[in-house]
Amino acid sequence: MCEQNREMIAIDVLKDIALVMDGMIFERQRAIDALTLFHRNALPALEEIAKKVDSKLLKERASLYIQRIKEGFDTNVSL
Q1: Number of DSSP helices (H) and strands (E) in the chain, helices first
Q2: Other beta carbons within 10 Å of 71
Q3: Which residues contact residue 39 at a Cβ distance below 8 angstroms, ignoring those fewer than 6 apart?
Q4: Residues 11, 47: contact at Cβ < 8 Å?
Q5: b/e per residue, 2-33, with b = 16+ CB within 10 A?
């Protein structure tokens, strides 16, 4: 399996974890944080999360990361 396919699978899995409505908020938050490791490649997943997620906290977190990635900031630091 090529590296790009593995990356896309990881991004999809993390996105799915973030979107699980009955999941623990902490786990969903960590999935969103982990997406930042993929930088610009994670933007579509983060944008989908920001649109679909049921939690205001998670929506704001995803939106913040989207903004930071688009502005070229390093997102791999603690908030």
Answers
A1: 4, 0
A2: 8
A3: 69, 75
A4: no
A5: eeeeeeeebbeebbebbbeeeeeeeebbebbb
Q: Are 18 and 33 in contact (CB under 8 A)?
A: no
Residue 53 has pLDDT above 90, yes or no: yes
pLDDT confidence of residue 63: 97
| CA distance linking residue 35 with residue 1, whole number of Å | 20
Helix (H) / strand (E) element for 11: namely: helix 3-19
CB-side neighbour CA atoms (13 Å) of 6: 3
Cα 35 from Cα 38, distance rounded (Å): 6
The tens digit of pLDDT for each residue in 3-48 reads 789 999 999 999 999 999 888 999 999 999 999 999 999 999 999 9
pLDDT at 77 over 60: no
